[in-house]
Amino acid sequence: MNAKKIIVWMLATAIIFGMLPAFTPTVSAAMEAPIIDTANFRVFARGTPILIKEVGGQTQVFLQSDPNTPLFGGQDISVGNWWVHGGWESGNYTANTSVIVESGTINGGIFGGSRDGMITGNTYVNITGGSVANIYGGNRQGSVNGNTNIEISGGNHGWIFGGGWEGTVSGSTNIEINNGSIYMVVGASSAAAGLVGSTNITVNDGTVEYLYGGGIDGSVTGDTNITINDGTVDGMFGGSNAGTIG
To answer: I need a labelling partner for 136 at 20 to 30 A (CA). Which of 67, 97, 142, 216 fits?
Structure first.
């Protein structure tokens, strides 16, 4: 669909948001050293900006400030059901989070936020390549008291959720697709408990098989906004699969 723009209004008072803000998250004073939970296949960045890329056939984690020295002794996180969290295991923190994926394979997925607890701040997930099975802007459980931001510029990915699994987002979820191939893009959360304030999805290029402005079972308290500038979207729904809008 060349030069075609589709805007889905879920309420008469809906406000159309533009593209995502520049990917320049503020480093938070609350950040701590990242940790790895090998028993449960989990990585917790704890508010520290991290970079994921493939080196020597292994998908490894680096600090964004030191992209040449792998964390955790270079342990491979590409096997099994690994989950990478931009936030913490649990607890309440005031912080922004940042996860960048350049290459590699993550068969579990990414949460921009924490596994549980509350983050007061914004989450950022930026993916330029590789393959990620599940991408969430928010928390697995708990809440993000702020906005979530996901930007996809390449790679082949499974499910993308602007919200969390059961996690809530008080502000807006923002998803921008600039390239790549994605099975499903969902503006809100997966589970019924995952409420979000509003959703904004922009597709500039790439291929999306299915797109929901709302959630799967998750609901949206405000508006859902979808803008298609280019690319291919095979199936599009302005609302949720089972959740409510407004």
So the answer is: 67
How big is the CA angle at 167 (ends 140 and 211), to the nearest 5 degrees?
90
Whether the CB-CB separation of 138 and 123 falls below 8 Å is answered with: yes
Over the stretch 171-204, which tens digit does the pLDDT of each residue have? 999 999 999 999 999 999 999 999 999 999 999 9
* pLDDT over threshold 80, residue 236: yes
Q: Which residues contact 82 (CB under 8 A, 6 or more apart)?
A: 41, 42, 43, 106, 107, 108
Contact (Cβ atoms closer than 8 angstroms) between residue 144 and residue 136: no
DSSP state of 40: T
pTM above 0.85, yes or no: yes
Q: What is the DSSP string of 161-220?
A: ESS-SS-EEEEEEEEEEEEEEEEEEESS-SSTT--EEEEEEEE-SSEEEEEESS-SS--B
Alpha-carbon distance of 27 to 48, in angstroms, equals 7
Q: Write down how long the chain is.
A: 246
Tokens of 216: 């799967």
Mean pLDDT of 116-124: 98
**Running DSSP on this structure, what letter comes out for residue 8?**
-
Could you give the CA distance from residue 191 to residue 141 in angstroms, rounded to a whole number?
A: 10
